[in-house]
Amino acid sequence: MTDVVDSDELLRRIQRARACAQEEERRWRDRRERLGPAEPEAAREAAGRVLAYEVVGRVLDEILTPGRHPRPSTTATASEAGHRE
After folding, report:
1. Where does the source fall among the domains of life (predicted)?
2. What string of DSSP letters covers 36-82?
3. Does the chain have fewer CB atoms within 10 Å around its N or its C terminus?
4. What distance in Å separates the CA atoms of residue 46 and residue 27, rounded to the nearest whole number?
């Protein structure tokens, strides 16, 4: 990984990575839906992978188009999640 790349090549690589993450997210989402309650453990694993690829896609989107994406709202505060200070 010692190759020097110009900014255009770096941009192309990030775009390919984003497209790959989006495709993998779709693939795992489809698998999760197919598995459903029949195979709860496999469906849980698929759901985790969906989340992981979704996050990777969001990060790459933010790199490619900074500031154009709404920030996700937090779902729970520390006190709601049961954390004590």
Report:
1. Bacteria
2. GGGSHHHHHHHHHHHHHHHHHHHHHHHHHSTT-SPPPPPS--TTTTT
3. N
4. 9
- Write out pLDDT tens, residues 56-81: 999 999 999 998 877 766 554 444 44
- Report helix angle 40-64 to 7-35, nearest 10: 160
Q: What is the pLDDT of residues 26-47, one digit of tens each?
A: 999 999 999 989 999 999 999 9
Domain count, the chain: 1
Residue 28 lies in a domain: yes
Q: Which domain holds residue 18?
A: 7-64
Does residue 25 sit within a domain? yes
Give the model's pLDDT for residue 80: 46
- Give the angle subtended at the CA of 48 by the CAs of 29 and 31, to the nearest 5°: 25
Within-domain flag for 11: yes
